[in-house]
């Protein structure tokens, strides 16, 4: 059973910033990044318990081949996306959202 995703504002801002950065590097690269993020969202929605627990009840899904991960929680009958997070950033940032 697929669960709907709720994307927190901070996660949306992170996604938008990453998209813009990739587009500045090469036209169309941001779109490719967005496609991979969407594919990861689809995977999370379809199988929310597939990805490993990494902190309390927070799970982590990789956005391959990009250095980004999606951190999320399952809350009732929905998935709450906490962060679209670059692997080089301090994890205390996304952990503060838990």
From TrEMBL:
The keyword Heme does not apply. InterPro entries: RelE/ParE_toxin (IPR007712), RelE/ParE_toxin_dom_sf (IPR035093), TA_system_RelE-like_toxin (IPR051803). Pfam families: ParE_toxin (PF05016). Keywords: Toxin-antitoxin system. The keyword Metal-binding does not apply. PANTHER family: TOXIN PARE1-RELATED, TOXIN PARE2. Belongs to the RelE toxin family. This is Plasmid stabilization system protein.
């Amino acid at each position: 059973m697929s669960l709907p995703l709720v994307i927190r504002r901070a996660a949306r801002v992170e996604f938008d910033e990453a998209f813009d950065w990739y587009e500045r590097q090469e036209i169309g690269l941001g779109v490719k990044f967005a496609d991979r993020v969407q594919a990861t969202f689809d995977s999370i929605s379809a199988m929310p318990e597939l990805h490993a627990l990494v902190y309390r009840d927070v799970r982590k899904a990789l956005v391959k081949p990009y250095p980004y991960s999606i951190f999320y929680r399952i809350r009732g009958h929905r998935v709450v996306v906490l962060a679209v997070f670059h692997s080089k950033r301090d994890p205390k940032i996304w952990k503060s959202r838990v």
